[in-house]
Amino acid sequence: MVVVHAAEIRVLRTTAIEDYHAHLLRLDRASCFPGDDRGVDAHCLDLLASGAILIGAYVKGVMRASAEIVPDRTARRAEAAITIEDGYHDRGFERDLTAKILDEARRCHINDVRVHEQTTSRSYRIPTLELHSYASA
After folding, report:
1. 69: three-class secondary structure by DSSP
2. Prediction pTM value
3. Per-residue confidence at 118, pLDDT binned at 50, 70, 90?
4. Residue 119: inside a domain, yes or no?
5. Can you tell me whether residue 77 is helix, strand or coil?
6. Burial class (CB in 10 A: 0-12, 13-18, 19+), 94
7. Is the dihedral of CA 20, 23, 24, 25 positive or negative?
8. Which of 53, 58, 49 is nearest to 68 (CA)?
9. 38: exposed, middle or buried (C-beta count within 10 Å: 0-12, 13-18, 19+)?
10. Does any domain span residue 98?
11. Neighbouring C-beta atoms of residue 17, cutoff 10 Å
12. C-alpha span between 97 and 95 (Å, rounded)
């Protein structure tokens, strides 16, 4: 287990795609990106092409957790995913990244966000109702 004292959560610019790519390569990719590194390469290119919003959680200058928000063609709905590297689970990144997803969805006027978890074996479950509650407010 890794001791994490503080993390910086920030929205990434396209110039930080290398950080995001490196983070994805450090994940246990058997469930996320089966095959070789080309799956991660293709996913990052797709994110850039789709206009995705990328969020990183940095510990000592290295991204250890992330969220991606991929809007649909209407930009009113989006799919989101949270990934966390081994050794960094149960440190509050799930909640921090979920909160940042909500903030960015509101900022971009996205009314509906569907969040996918990294794996079903993690103890944290993202509150789907919370993600939809602001749309009717």
Report:
1. strand
2. 0.80
3. low
4. yes
5. strand
6. buried
7. positive
8. 53
9. exposed
10. yes
11. 16
12. 6
User: Residue type for 10, please?
Assistant: R
State how many domains the chain has.
Answer: 1
Positive/negative CA dihedral, 102, 64, 50, 124:
negative
Backbone phi, psi, residue 76, to 5°? -105, -20
* Structural contact between residues 29 and 39, judged by C-beta atoms closer than 8 angstroms: yes
Residue 2 within a domain: no
Q: What is the pLDDT of residues 16-33, one digit of tens each?
A: 899 999 999 998 766 566
Radius of gyration of the chain (CA): 14
Check: CB of residue 77 under 8 Å from CB of residue 29.
Answer: no
| pLDDT tens figures, 57-116 | 999 999 999 999 999 888 888 989 898 998 888 888 888 898 899 899 989 999 888 877
**Which pLDDT score, from 0 to 100, does residue 120 have?**
43
Q: Tell me whether residue 88 is in a domain.
A: yes
Please tell me the total number of residues recorded for the chain in this structure.
137
Strand partners, 70: 79
User: For position 36, which CATH number holds?
Assistant: 3.40.630.30
Domain that holds residue 33: 8-136
Residue 122 per-residue DSSP state: S
